[in-house]
Write a structure and sequence with these properties.
Elements: H1 11-14, H2 33-41, H3 58-69, E1 73-74, H4 76-84, E2 90-98, E3 114-123, E4 129-135, H5 145-154, E5 160-163, H6 167-178, H7 183-191, E6 193-195, H8 198-201, E7 205-206, H9 216-223, H10 237-249, H11 254-283
Parallel strand pairs: 2-5, 5-6
Antiparallel strand pairs: 1-7, 2-3, 3-4
Helix pairs in contact: 6-7, 9-11, 10-11
């Protein structure tokens, strides 16, 4: 079992005894086979009915405590210390990447991520927020060089780079190999990188409503419910990758291609704006 999101669509129909929030929503419950089998064998599906609370460890225990108390469990001091170390301006950076089993571009092997766009929100100490972006729209021999050049224009030499997970760091390492003349600049970005997701993955902020996860799509609806991906034409990284690939194949009219470009930019822009709003939320945790 890999979580409720991995269930088939008939799960709820076939298992009406399982509540909307159940033992299956506990973090990595599928890796705790002994505990899961024990609960299922006794038909214990509600968190309220768990009779072996001492078997809940790590995030499962914190998630359970948050669920039972009805409020998040927050290490306010740890969060404050982490955020106080950040230096303005803050650059919220997100890449979108393309991958496939058959390489389509020079210097990229099977299943290697091709960074084809980025969004960058820049938050200044006075609260002013700027936005920069770039999208590769035509394949060239030096596919990523224009992207790197635009990043060099958009990002100054001071300030913290903020990402969600280490995905951006990995893409930058690949960009260094492809664009060695920009090594110092790109390495500098990685040295200035802060993973905003780490506040959640290190359990400094745990809300049972995250259901044991800390992806941005788990965290955002709970902390910033006014922001949503639901209204976007492109609402996920896999979809973005597929649309960019199809756009480059030239199977669309100019008008359709322009719309795809717009949709891709809007999706990536929301990723970085979501980080800005989550950061703002965390700075107000008292």
């Amino acid at each position: 079992y890999r979580g409720r999101s991995a269930q088939c669509q008939t799960f709820q129909y076939s298992n009406p005894q399982v509540p909307e929030y159940s033992i299956y929503d506990l973090s990595d419950i599928g890796k705790s086979k002994k505990l899961l089998n024990y609960l299922v064998d006794l038909h214990i599906y509600k968190l309220e009915d768990i009779d072996v609370k001492n078997e809940l460890k790590g995030l499962k225990k914190i998630q359970y405590d948050s669920y039972m108390s009805g409020k998040p469990i927050i290490d306010k001091i740890a969060i404050k210390n982490m955020l106080d170390d950040l230096e303005f301006p803050l650059y919220f950076l997100d890449f979108e990447g393309y991958t496939g089993s058959i390489p389509r571009f020079n210097s990229f092997g099977p299943y290697q991520q091709v960074p084809f766009q980025y969004s960058l929100h820049i938050l200044h100490e006075d609260g002013v927020l700027d936005h920069k972006e770039y999208l590769i729209t035509e394949p060239t021999a030096d596919l990523t060089l224009p992207l790197v050049k635009k990043m060099r224009e958009d990002i100054e030499d001071d300030g913290t780079i903020i990402s969600w997970s280490n995905y951006e760091k990995q893409r930058i390492l690949k960009l260094i190999k492809l664009n060695p003349t920009y090594t110092n600049f790109l390495l500098g970005l990685n040295h200035r990188m802060f993973d905003l997701m780490s506040i959640f993955s290190k359990k400094h902020y745990v809300d049972a409503l995250f259901k044991g996860g800390w992806s941005i799509k788990k965290v955002l609806p709970i902390l910033v419910p006014d922001l949503s991906y639901n209204e976007l034409e492109i609402s996920g990284g896999t979809q973005a990758m597929a649309m960019w690939g199809k756009m480059l194949e030239g199977n669309y009219t100019t008008e359709s291609s322009d719309q795809i470009q717009k949709d891709l930019l809007e999706y990536c822009k929301l990723d970085t704006y979501a980080m800005v709003e989550i950061y703002r939320f965390l700075t107000n945790v008292k």
